[in-house]
Amino acid sequence: ISHDYEAWVDYYKLPEDEDNRRRAGIRATITRTNDWIAKVAQSIKAIDVVMNDGIQKMAEATAGKPLQIGVFVNHKSGYTETSPGIIDVSVRGTAREGRKMKLGFHFKDDRFRIESTCNARFAEENLPTQEFENLDINLKLYAESAKPRDVISFTVTLSEIENDVEFDRRGISTIVHLV
Question: How much is the pTM?
Answer without folding.
Answer: 0.95
